[in-house]
Structure prediction request, 129 residues.
Amino acid sequence: MSMKRNDDAVSPVIGVILMVAITVILAAVIAAFVFGLVGNVQGAKVVGLTVQDNSTAGIITWQGGADMSSLVNVTYTLNGGSQTEFTPQLHTPTVGSSSTIGSSITGRKLIIIGKFSDGSEQVIFDKQF
Prediction:
């Protein structure tokens, strides 16, 4: 007596399961776009600047960038301290202008935060000197 093995149904069953899974995933992605779950993603702001330390103060030179014109206020923190406005107070920097930090930044972590005309805030510089 010989036993005959029949594996013909395995492949179609796996195929049907995969087709159902793909359909469910595709429906979820389309529903996310239709109901607006992915629509409000904002891109990063682009502002160019260079920072130098002259042993008595940090000097920031504003280089430009696509979002430079929408920058309305700039503050900085040193070593995680409180946010401070630049000296002299800087509200809207222009390309080529410079701003100073009143003390040396050597050995300190400098974070510069920009506030933009759309109300958003973003870190535009972060470096350990």
Notes: Helices lie at 10-34. The beta strands are 48-53, 58-64, 71-78, 84-85, 98-101, 109-116, 121-128.
